[in-house]
Structures are given as structure tokens and as C-alpha cells.
């Protein structure tokens, strides 16, 4: 779904939205939910939304895409990261995340932190499908 984000150009596609502590839905979903079905409503006023990874893979398989991550909380200032060359890999490789270099870190790289830098090239994992390279399941350890 195209997202209308205040202050940004049109054309951004909403693939995830999550209000922390307002739903446990992300913790209770399966590989099938995350990869094939998706869940929630693509509405920034709702509590959560996840576009199925298969759909994001299809969308990002052609053309050039950027990934915008906006973070807002009651305890920290607004933070924003934009990566270029974003895509999600194919199912048979575990829907690996591919991101290029950062083109924006607002207000600055120190405040935004590592973002997804350490996850680049890694497959997706869920509590019921452990594809990460660690001895324990990261999705369980980090509560999906």
C-alpha cells in the first residue's frame, strides 16, 4: 500500500508498521504469516501491519528501491534511516535482506544507531523457522 508520509515525497510503500507495547501480534506469528499471508491493516493509525515477504520480494525484484525506517517513541527523539538498493531475496534463500549504503541518518548516525546494518545479507527467521546463523533462535530471543 502506498504510504502518505508527512514531509516526504509520494511513492513510498508501507511494508511494516508497529506501535510498541500496543500489540503482541508480532510475537505470535508464524513463518507462514510473515512470508505468505501478512497481517494487520496498512493504516498508520492502526497498531500494526506486516506485508508478506513474498509480496515484498516480488515488488523489489525489479527496479530500484529505497528502505525508509522511521522510529518514534515517548522517550527518544524521532529518528530516520534511509538505505538505497533495498530488496528482499527469494524464498529458497530465506528471504534475505539486501540493503545498500545509508543515504540518510536523521538526526545523525550516532542517534539512529546501527539500524539494520548488521542484518544485511541475512535470512529471515521466525520462532518456528530458525534460519539465522547463531546457535539460538534470534526470533525467540528477541521476541520476534
Could you describe the 3D structure shown?
- The chain has four helices and eight strands, in the order E-H-E-E-H-E-E-E-E-E-H-H.
- It has helices at 31-37, 53-60, 109-112, 138-141, and strands spanning 16-18, 39-40, 48-50, 67-71, 79-83, 87-88, 97-98, 102-106.
- The chain has a three-stranded antiparallel sheet. It has a three-stranded antiparallel sheet with strand order 4-5-8.
- The longest helix is centred in the middle third of the chain and has 8 residues, at 53-60.
- 15% of the residues are buried.
Keywords:
single chain; 144 residues; alpha+beta; three-stranded antiparallel sheet; 4 helices
Beta-strand share of residues: 15-25%
Radius of gyration, CA atoms, in whole angstroms: 15 Å
Tell me, rounded to a whole number, the average pLDDT: 87
Protein structure class: alpha+beta
Q: Within the largest sheet, what's the order of strands?
A: 1-3-2
Described by the principal axes of the CA atoms, the overall outline is: globular
Report helical residue fraction: 10-25%
N-C termini distance: 23 Å
- Biggest pleated-sheet summary: 3 strands, antiparallel
Number of strands: 8
SSE pattern:
EHEEHEEEEEHH
Helix count, per DSSP? 4
Amino acid at each position: 500500500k502506498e504510504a502518505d508520509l508527512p514531509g516526504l515525497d509520494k511513492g513510498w510503500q508501507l511494508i511494516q508498521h508497529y506501535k510498541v507495547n500496543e500489540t503482541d501480534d508480532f510475537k505470535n506469528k508464524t513463518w507462514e504469516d510473515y512470508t505468505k499471508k501478512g497481517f494487520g491493516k496498512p493504516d498508520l493509525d492502526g497498531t500494526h501491519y506486516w506485508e508478506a515477504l513474498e509480496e515484498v520480494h516480488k515488488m523489489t525484484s525489479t527496479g530500484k528501491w529505497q528502505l525508509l525506517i522511521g522510529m518514534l517513541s515517548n522517550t527518544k527523539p524521532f529518528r530516520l534511516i534511509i538505505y538505497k538498493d533495498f530488496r528482499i531475496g527469494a524464498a529458497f534463500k530465506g528471504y534475505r535482506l539486501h540493503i545498500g549504503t545509508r543515504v540518510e541518518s536523521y538526526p545523525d548516525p550516532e542517534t539512529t544507531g546501527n539500524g539494520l546494518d548488521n542484518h544485511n545479507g541475512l535470512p529471515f527467521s521466525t520462532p518456528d523457522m530458525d534460519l539465522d546463523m547463531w546457535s539460538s533462535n534470534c526470533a525467540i530471543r528477541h521476541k520476534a
